[in-house]
Amino acid sequence: MASRGRRSGVPTRDGEQRRDEPRRKEQTEQQAPAPQGLVLPPPPPVDYGVFMQGLVQAMQTQAHTQATLQAQMEAQALSAACRQEGEMEQYLEEKKALQKRPAALFQR
Fold first, then answer.
1. 0.85 exceeded by the pTM?
2. Where is the composition biased (Basic and acidic residues) (predicted)?
């Protein structure tokens, strides 16, 4: 953009600064916003070594928990598959036994 609008409607040239701009910047720097309500004290200093140890421990616990849950899910899936396989074998055995019976029992 080659020009900026003034309040009076007359554009300024590039590089030319508005007269009231520096004053506005100074005013905003001098007028810090007044704190509203309760002002809290600064937080206590942080021991980053202790913080990192806690973080590592939490991550290890999470990894262990995730591995345990994964193992439980796999065991449940295997159990369900074995149960279905057993049910299928039983069904096939019953079907085979029914086919071996003489058909005369069902006739009048």
1. no
2. 13-28
